Amino acid sequence: MTNIGIIGAGMIANVHAEAAKAVGTNVVCVFDPRESKTNEFAKKHECDVASSVEELVARDNIEGVVIAVPNDQHAPLAIQALESGKHVLLEKPMAMSITQCDEILAARDASGKVLQMGFVCRYSPAAMKAKHLIEDGTIGDVLDVQATLVRQRGIPGIGGWFTTKQRSGGGCLIDIGVHLIDLAMHITQKKSPINALGKCTRAFTIDSYAYEEMWSTPVKDGTFDVEDRVRAIISDSSGTTFQYNVAWATHLPEDTLQDGLLIEGTKGALVVDLWADEMTLGYSEEGNPKDKKITFDVTEAWDDAFQGEHKAFADAVTNNAHTATAGTGEDGRLVQMVIDAIYESDAQCRQVEV
Ligand SMILES: NC(=O)c1ccc[n+]([C@@H]2O[C@H](COP(=O)([O-])OP(=O)(O)OC[C@H]3O[C@@H](n4cnc5c(N)ncnc54)[C@H](O)[C@@H]3O)[C@@H](O)[C@H]2O)c1
Fold first, then answer.
1. Under the phi-then-psi rule, with left for phi > 0, alpha for psi from -120 to 50, and beta for the rest, what region is 192?
2. CA 25 to each of CA 51, 74, 319: distance values in angstroms, whole numbers, following the listed order
3. Average pLDDT of the residues in 220-240
């Protein structure tokens, strides 16, 4: 059995604990500077409370740690855990700059431990099916991917760390855009982005945004100095284009929002809803357009994905090596490069090199 500690006891740490336990991993201990959160977490998941990060990563009874803390803490804590000889499952985004990514990679290499990125969408049953279909040649060579993730009301903790650039590194792009950017490159295996054109904007303010229960508590006098929407086009050296449409919140009616991936190839196309149990394949028969549904097994796609991530981490800890689906540190760095290029393109109002 794999034994892990969790650093952070917030929203996603609880999801990790449930998923880890579901696949037979033992959640041994947790640390969060917010004592009430830590105690609540420890009671719920029946684990020990560590008194500090130092104490948690020094424990002999854990082999790995999950890092589920605000983005500005990713690099220092990942480095600390790796230097203490622990395998690390690091939540996305990898860090807030390429320099920090390189520091994490150097710590990983010096430690000889596994660094797995929390690119959980890779394990959605639909994403795995789409990747297999592309590998099989079902749609030919991939020409274009349109990836959309537009929430109607989904600004996490508005006014808090997520919407404070100094702590998050950016808004919806670095928060949820990272998932799409990684996924599109992973599914298509087109991993040589060459240039980026992006525009980041903001439609909402703390006062103009009414809040939904699932996105934690708003901070009324807090900070909101990041984008809530982004549009970007990335060109890959293979000629493939990636278009991203990401927003934390929108005025568009809910029934007009169509999240997912439209993947178009030379022989066919896939319409992929990441959290569904079927997708549409478009193709042509004697030159005429045809389409059909492709179904696959899903229990509960979100749970399946987090459990897949934890199975992969447990395997990595046991074998000291990555499984094929797992996001690596290099993948995290590549996504950071694309994000940085989109922010730079927005700042300079022109296309930039990745
Ligand atoms: N994979 C996903 O789909 C997904 C979803 C949500 C969040 N995330 C990522 O997970 C991370 C956490 O997000 P969240 O929604 O759980 O945020 P959150 O605000 O709910 O929780 C973060 C917790 O980290 C704690 N913390 C801060 N500094 C710490 C430190 N030095 N040591 C230990 N704990 C510390 C905070 O007190 C807080 O309880 C973020 O990086 C976010 O991008 C990923």
1. beta
2. 22, 22, 15
3. 97
285 C-alpha to center of ligand 1: Å? Answer: 49
What local confidence, expressed as pLDDT, does residue 217 receive?
Answer: 72
| Pocket (CB within 6 angstroms of ligand 1) | 7-13, 31-34, 37, 53, 68-71, 73, 91-92, 118, 120, 156, 175
CATH architecture label of 3-113 = 3-Layer(aba) Sandwich (3.40)
The gap between the terminal CA atoms of the chain, to the nearest Å, is 41
The pLDDT value given to residue 47: 98
Query: How many Å lie between the centroid of ligand 1 and the Cα of residue 151?
Result: 20
| pTM listed for this prediction | 0.97
Domain 122-299+335-353 has CATH 3.30.360.10: yes
Residues 6+ apart with CB under 8 A from 352: 195, 196, 197, 341, 344, 345
- The residue extents of the domains of the chain are 3-113, 122-299+335-353
